[in-house]
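User: Good morning. I'm curious how (2S)-2-hydroxybutanedioic acid would be positioned relative to this chain. Could you predict the structure with it bound?
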Amino acid sequence: QPSNFQMGESSGLSRENCRAKGGAPGFKVAILGAAGGIGQPLAMLMKMNPLVSVLHLYDVVNTPGVTSDISHMDTGAVVRGFLGQQQLEDALTGMDLVIIPAGVPRKPGMTRDDLFNINAGIVKTLCEGIAKCCPNAIVNLISNPVNSTVPIAAEVFKKAGTFDPKRLLGVTMLDVVRANTFVAEVLGLDPREVDVPVVGGHAGVTILPLLSQVKPPCSFTPEEIDYLTARIQNGGTEVVEAKAGAGSATLSMAYAAVKFADTCLRGLRGDAGVIQCAYVFSQVTELPFFASKVRLGRTGAEEIYPLGPLNEYERAGLEKAKKELASSIQKGISFIRK
Ligand code: NAD
Ligand code: LMR
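Assistant: Good morning! Here's the predicted structure, ligand included:
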C-alpha cells in the first residue's frame, strides 16, 4: 500500500468547500478504525448521512480499498482515506466529530475488560492526535472496554489541556437499541415506538435498563423484568457467542453508532430537544463517569439528566453497577497517570 496514500477525489479536479455536494451545510466527520467490522458499515452509513459534508476514513490497514469503494456512492459527502500513524494528523485536522471504533473485539469466553491491554494504548494514541489536531471536535468513543476507555480519553485530554467534558461521549447506544428491540418484542409493539433508558455503563451488570421508565408507559411481570434485564445486559455476549470467534456486534453497532452520531450532529446544528443516553463525565452519581440521558447541543452534551425515580429492583442494580464501574474507571485513570 502506498505510504502517502490519500484518496477519495480521484481526478484531483473536484472543487471543494465545507458544504456537502448538494449545497447543504454539513459537518466534517472522521472515523478511526474505519476498515474494521464496525468501521466499514459505519463509513457506509455516514456517507449516506445528509448532515455530513466531509468523511475521513482512518485505519492502520485497508483504508485504500474501503475509501475507493465508499467514495463511489452518489451521496453528498466527500470521502478521503488515511492509512497509518503518519497520516493520523491529516485525518483529524478540521474535524467536527470523531468516531472511534478502533481496537480488538472479544472472542467467546472473554470479558470486555480482557481487551483493556490492547485497546487502552490504541485509544490513548488516537486521543493524543485529537488533542493536537482537532481539540474542539466531539468524540464518540466505541472501543471497549468503554467503561475504562472514556476515562483514558479524559485523562489524555486533561494532560493536553484540552479536556471539555461536554465533548467526550462514550457510545452506549447499542444497549438502548437492544433494549428497545427486546422490550418491544415482549410488549408486542413496533420497536420504533419504544424508548428504554439504559444507564450506568457498557459491560455486564453496569448496563442498567430502567424498565420502570419505558415509554410508552407499561408494566412488566417480575419474570419479564428478570428476562429483559439479563438479555439486555448480555446482548453483546449473545452476539460474540453466535459469531463463535469471528468477532462481536458490528452491523447493529454500526447502526447504533450512526444513530448516535446523527444525534450529535443534530445537536451541533442547533436542533432543540435532542436527547440520547451516553456515558459521560457526570455528577449524576458519586462516580466521575456514568451513562444517563443527555441533551446534545452546539457544544456537545450540554445537559445531563438525573436518573429519575428508580424502583427497588433498579436501586439494587444501581449499587452493583456502581461497584464495578468504580474499578473500571480507576483502571482507566491509572493507565494514564501511572
Ligand atoms: P475489528 O477488529 O473488526 O476492527 C477494528 C479496526 O481497528 C481494524 O480495522 C483495525 O485495523 C483498527 N485498528 C487497530 N488499531 C488501530 C489504530 N491504532 N488506529 C486505527 N485503527 C486501528 O473490530 P470491531 O468489531 O470493529 O470492534 C472494534 C471495537 O469496538 C472493539 O473494541 C469492540 O469491542 C468495540 N465495540 C463496542 C461496542 C459498543 O457498544 N461500544 C459495540 C461493539 C463493538
Ligand atoms: C457489544 O455490546 O456488542 C459490544 O460491547 C461488543 C462486545 O464485546 O460485546
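Residues 32-33, 35-39, 59-61, 101-106, 115, 119, 122, 125-126, 142-144, 146, 171, 174, 202, 247-250, 253 surround nicotinamide-adenine-dinucleotide (ligand 1) (CB under 6 Å). The two ends are 37 Å apart (CA to CA).
Let me know if you'd like a different ligand tried.
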